[in-house]
Amino acid sequence: MKYTLLLTGKMRAGKDELAKIMIKLDPSLRRMAFADELKRLSAEVLGIPVEDLHDPEKKKLYRERLIFGGNLVRAIAPHTWADHIYYSDEYQQNNVIITDARYPNEIENGKFFAANTHRKVLVVRIEASDEIREERGANPEFEKDVSEISLDSYPYDVRIRNEGTVEELEKQAVRLYNYIYGKN
């Protein structure tokens, strides 16, 4: 049975760091993100290297435009970003960790596809205090954007509190890995 880990949480909570650790624990996992296609298209339109939009420091310069572009497409075709992943061969053929679930439809679509393909979906909420996230570079200006708050009360399967060191996050990742594979 294939599985999908959908990571949710506010910016700089540690979603990408958890994904890196999980991929080390389970090299069969493929990292995917709903925003990857948005970043690719935005880089093309802006005439910049897509790598700039994956670099946290450089991405700050474009975050407002990324949010606007993502919301514009979502207003016209709400499932565009989710469908781009769920219909892809990479998703269909691999265990996947999606690092940026930010809207209920992204999770609901994943559960719908999973039900029809014998895939297990696990929603993982990663949390850190506002102070810690700001120390990591979160911009308070975007805290109330719908992309940051739409899943605040959404039910999750696993919650990870990420307020400490990378080593502490690694311990939680091992517990998550054991949970997925039924190991104790």
Instruction: Kindly provide the radius of gyration, computed on alpha-carbon positions and rounded to a whole number of angstroms.
Output: 16 Å
CATH superfamily: P-loop containing nucleotide triphosphate hydrolases
| Strand percent estimate | 15-25%
Question: H/E order of the elements?
Answer: EHEHHHHHEHEHHEH
Total domain units: 1
CATH class: Alpha Beta
- Please report the total strand number as a whole number: 5
Q: Identify the CATH architecture.
A: 3-Layer(aba) Sandwich
- Helix residue percentage: 40-55%
Report on this model:
It contains ten helices and five strands, in the order E-H-E-H-H-H-H-H-E-H-E-H-H-E-H. The chain has helices spanning 15-25, 35-46, 56-59, 63-76, 80-86, 89-93, 104-115, 130-135, 146-149, 166-181, and strands spanning 2-8, 29-32, 95-98, 119-127, 158-161. The protein is globular and about 45 Å long. Helix 1 (15-25) crosses helix 10, helix 2 (35-46) packs across helix 4 (63-76) and helix 5 runs parallel beside helix 7. The longest helix is centred in the C-terminal third of the chain and has 16 residues, at 166-181. It has one domain: 3-Layer(aba) Sandwich (Rossmann fold), CATH 3.40.50.300. Helices cover 49% and strands 15% of the residues. Strands 2-3-1-4-5 form a five-stranded parallel beta sheet. With 184 residues, it is an alpha/beta fold.
